[in-house]
Amino acid sequence: MAAPKKKEKTEKSTTPKIAKGNRSVRYAKATVGKDFAKVYSLKEAVALVKSCASAKFDESVDVAVNLGIDVKQTDQNVRGVISLPNGTGKKVTIAVFARDKKADEAKKAGAQIIGAEDLIEKVAKGEVNFDKCIATPDMMPLLGKVAKVLGPKGLMPNPKLGSVSDDVATAVKNALAGQVEYRADKAGVIHAMVGKASFAEDSLVQNVQTLIDALNKAKPSNSKGVYLKKVSLSSTMGPSVKVVPGSINS
Question: Which domains does the chain have, with CATH numbers?
Fold first, then answer.
């Protein structure tokens, strides 16, 4: 009896598989023939991400940065806020906890939701219909009542991040201009929006460079080994594209 023929090994495709009903034909055409196992320079990665953004809406472009930090150590918590040179392209709804004159300043600066005790009561009932939150220092003791609501959502005002300030006008303007807050998660990964797929390539490159520069400056002094371990870019509906960390600010 003849021995069964061995199956010939075929080279695995690096083009994402398209599950019926989950991805459109438009997505398939945008990604076919492109190598997502390869690691690209920042400029190449940006161009590839833009070419794969095939949704009918203007997709967001996000960056994920794996940091070489020990998240169990409190002094290695990487967190901060930065204003991207070209903004994020996202329309944000800002809530400001302030009274009287400060409330008026917040409204003139462009804040959409403003209040004091009345706004706190609404938040306590679960009405959190805003993306960012700013408060004057005198409101912070009262905000303790809703800390369990705002905290898990990453919305609790923090003086270190500029969201607790007497200068509410500047805080509101910064938030509207594309200010991005970053914070390492439990796995030591930073996730941040750096623009829209409609942005020019140079604008996205500049935004990513600005974020990475901020992360380098925020590097904990006791962080050991490689700090920027892995960087990847993706659009809302597109595949992840790996970036050579050393190419970002070169």
Answer: 37-88+180-247 (3.30.190.20), 94-177 (3.40.50.790)
